[in-house]
Amino acid sequence: MDESWNHKNKKEITRETIIGLGENSFKKNYYSELQTKLLDLERINSRTRALIATIPDILLISNGEGQITPLNPSLNTGSYALLEIMRNPILMADLKQVIDLVMRTRVLSDYYFSMTFKDSLHYFEVRVQISSFDEVLIMIRDMTERVIMEKKLRDLVDKDTLTHIANRRFFEAELEQLNNRDIKNLTILLLDIDGLKFVNDTLGHLLGDQVIVSASQVIGRCFQALGIVSRIGGDEFGVIVKNQPSDIIESALEKMNSHLKCLNELPDATFKISLSYGYSYHPCGLVNTNFLFQEADNNMYQNKLLKESSTRNNLVKTLMKALEAKDYVTEGHTSRMDTLATLIGQALRLPQNVMDRIQLLTKFHDIGKVGIPDSILKKPSALTPDEWKVMKTHCAIGERIANESSELKDISHLILKHQEKWDGTGYPLGLAGEDIPIECRVLSIVDSYDAMTNDRPYRGALSPETAINEIVSCAGSQFDPGMVKIFCKVIEQHLRPQQ
């Protein structure tokens, strides 16, 4: 056996012998391996420092005796947050409790908190782990971007994108949770915007969307504090109210009607919002939410039927006021047309029912222009082809409006056809000759004459003689030639002395 391994000759392992000092040094045998190990340790240490420097999270270390110090004090974005955290006694007290728990259980622990700094709310996740040397490592990660993104994703799933209140999916999920539970004082309220389709068809979907948003805001102000307000359809809203007696619901509905009245009385209210509603109240016991919803829906539908006729007529009156507000229809315009049309009708010996329709048509034939943008209606120059396509839609819009009114329903087809021309080049149907209703042929002449002899956004008024000559030149193309002759006689006999 080699002497160096004899127990009697065994060298004492000391710091000096390991690093190569003294007579009993191990230097001859082990120096190269130690140098390699030391280099490896330095390399690992360098990597660790570099790794810590690249970690964006706040790193703290605790010795278990309540002393917490930063492990990466060179933070840039996190340094301000670190100072705020270290200065917050409540957060530090909570953190020390978590550290104590980890030291007792030696199990990784999570902790979450939020804190306001730099004028915004930030969300943090804390992870606490203990090492084999009983040092506690604390990692604090700023989760604000992730939390905000998760909230946005939840909003996309649970909220209506137009009104930013809960959507139908959320509403139905809430009903499902409540179904077959023993609940007291549960109310399901359903509300529906009256005439929204009518608004979309006449004034356009952009105004329809504004009506939906306004209605949701009114409903929210009155019911958001009581329960869950949701948009459950295009024009329908649902409210779930828990732990409130029925008289509270009635009071909230009265408040809602009061808000609607104030909103509708505003000077710029183009469309007066009306809501039909019905609710079902469950006092106590096991609840069947499907039955409760159906009962509320039936009550809402009955309420809608009771006010449907008056709502439609009020809508038409509102649109007429809106058309007057556009400064297109004036009292003078309609009265002048009515006078001239009556004289022509009398000359034609038309029956009274036809005369009545002509008089209504002179007043309401352009009601569809309430759905045409002002940028087109009041454009001082010629319309582009695309703008002209939009302008032509006013006939169909007017027909839809008239069909919603008991007073105008009989002339809805005349409103649709009032832009037809004798030679078939008019719109929207391209009717020609006597296929064009006589009421529309009369209107075509009197409307053109009044338009030419009065100021328009795109030109000044023409003289009566110029306007008459223009109408005569268009006899057989735009106008009924026989009716043009009668028009000239009426002008000569009744109106020329006044001009």
TrEMBL record:
Transmembrane annotation, as ranges: none
EC annotation? Answer: 2.7.7.65
Q: Which InterPro entries match?
A: Cyclic_di-GMP/3'3'-cGAMP_PDE (IPR052020), GGDEF_dom (IPR000160), HD/PDEase_dom (IPR003607), HD_GYP_dom (IPR037522), Nucleotide_cyclase (IPR029787), Rev_trsase/Diguanyl_cyclase (IPR043128)
**In its keyword annotation, does this UniProt entry include Transferase?**
yes
Cited PROSITE patterns: GGDEF, HD_GYP
Q: Can you name one GO molecular function term for this protein?
A: diguanylate cyclase activity
Keywords for the protein's UniProt record, in alphabetical order: Nucleotidyltransferase, Transferase
Q: Where is the HD-GYP domain?
A: 308-499
Name of the top EC class for this enzyme: transferase
| Source organism, top-level taxon | Bacteria
Show where the GGDEF domain sits: 184-320
Q: Which Gene3D superfamilies match?
A: 3.30.70.270, Hypothetical protein af1432
The record's annotation in NCBIfam families points to: GGDEF
The protein's matches in PANTHER family, at most eight in alphabetical order, are given as:
CYCLIC DI-GMP PHOSPHODIESTERASE TM_0186 (PTHR45228:SF1), CYCLIC DI-GMP PHOSPHODIESTERASE TM_0186-RELATED (PTHR45228)
Protein name per Swiss-Prot or TrEMBL:
Diguanylate cyclase
Source organism per entry reads Acetobacterium wieringae
